[in-house]
Amino acid sequence: MRSQNKGQIRIIEAFLAVLVIFSSFTIFSNLTVTRSVEKSGDLASIGLQALMKLDSNGNLGKFIDSKNWTALRDALDIVLPPSVCFNLTAYDETMNQVNDYAISNGALNSQEVAFVEYVCASQGVVFHCYIIYLHLAVAK
Amino acid sequence: MPAISIDTFFACSLMVLLVLSAMATTSKLLYPQINNAIDEALSERYREISKYLLLNEGSPSNWGQNGQIIPENFGLAKADSENPYELDIDKVSRLNSENIYAISYAKIFTALKLSDVSFRMEIKPVFDVIINLTATFVKANDATYQFEISTKKSGIPIQTKLKCYVIAENYLEASPFHTSNGENNVNITIPNDVNGPAILVALAKAVCDSRIMSYGVYAFAHNSINPKPKSTFLKLSPLNYTLTTSFVYPEMNLSKAYALNINYYSLLEQISNGNQSLTYNLPNFVDPSPTIIVVTGCNSTNFFAEWTVYPHIPLKIGANFAGLDALSNVFTYNYIVSINSAIYECTIWLGGPKQ
Question: What count of other Cβ atoms lies within 10 Å of the Cβ of residue B30?
Answer without folding.
Answer: 11
